[in-house]
């Protein structure tokens, strides 16, 4: 199955960037797949009620939103606030109390205060379930024997910060 990620809402760029970072960091993809298989057993598919037990999945989504803020104009990332600013390291969020509510100025993917996104919980559930299902149920590879380092990872600036070139992956059912 060939997967093109498209769409214009704020959830889609997060899934697309998360998948892009996982292709560039296969050890993180393996770790996430392992964490999912520890909690979601017997061939089940991840469900909403499983999400609180999947802190690594949440860390991956936070790290994706840190490095690729979904809504560009408000949320330019701040290099000085983060060690290894350009590196994709979900572990930085594991023992941290930084949540999605915008209480720390360097991480406000859903804005904060009175402007905070009213769809935050729904958006997070959508991103978490889509990403977890794709990781859990499919093996991913780039088409045309392309190498991860050949991927175009430039942003396309707009209301949402999308990849300039859409991600295309070949998915095989695991
Ligand atoms: C991962 C997904 C999402 C992200 C990252 C996101 C992010 C944001 C951000 C940063 C803002 C504030 C924009 C500003 O400061 O003007 C916002 C506003 C808003 N979002 Fe979301 N959003 C997401 C999903 C959703 C969903 C699923 C819904 C609806 C079902 C939604 C509905 C809204 C609405 C109505 C506003 C405007 C609120 C206002 O101005 O009072 N969002 N979103």
Automatic annotation (TrEMBL):
Entry cofactors: heme
Top-level taxon of origin: Eukaryota
InterPro entries, A to Z: Cyt_P450, Cyt_P450_CS, Cyt_P450_E_grp-I, Cyt_P450_sf
Keyword tags: Heme, Iron, Membrane, Metal-binding, Monooxygenase, Oxidoreductase, Transmembrane, Transmembrane helix
Pfam families attached to this UniProt entry: p450
GO MF, one annotated term: oxidoreductase activity, acting on paired donors, with incorporation or reduction of molecular oxygen
Subcellular locations according to the entry: Membrane
Membrane topology according to the record: Single-pass membrane protein
Positions that bind heme: 117
GO CC terms: membrane
Family: Belongs to the cytochrome P450 family.
Name the UniProt record assigns to this protein: Cytochrome P450
Species this chain originates from: Erythranthe guttata
């Amino acid at each position: 199955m060939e997967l093109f990620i498209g769409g214009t809402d704020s959830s889609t760029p997060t899934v697309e960037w998360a998948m892009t970072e996982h292709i560039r960091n296969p050890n993180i993809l393996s770790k996430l797949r392992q964490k999912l298989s520890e909690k979601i057993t017997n061939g089940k598919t991840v469900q909403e009620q499983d999400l609180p037990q999947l802190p690594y999945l949440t860390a991956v989504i936070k790290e994706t939103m840190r490095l690729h803020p979904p809504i560009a104009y408000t949320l330019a990332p701040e290099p000085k606030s983060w060690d290894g600013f350009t590196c994709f390291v979900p572990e930085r969020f594991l023992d941290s109390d930084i949540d999605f509510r915008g209480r720390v100025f360097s991480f406000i993917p859903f804005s904060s205060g009175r402007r905070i996104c009213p769809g935050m919980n729904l958006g997070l559930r959508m991103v978490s379930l889509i990403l977890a299902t794709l990781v859990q149920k499919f093996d991913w590879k780039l088409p045309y024997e392309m190498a991860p380092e050949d991927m175009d990872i430039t942003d396309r600036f707009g209301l949402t910060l999308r990849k300039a070139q859409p991600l295309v992956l070949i998915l095989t059912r695991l």
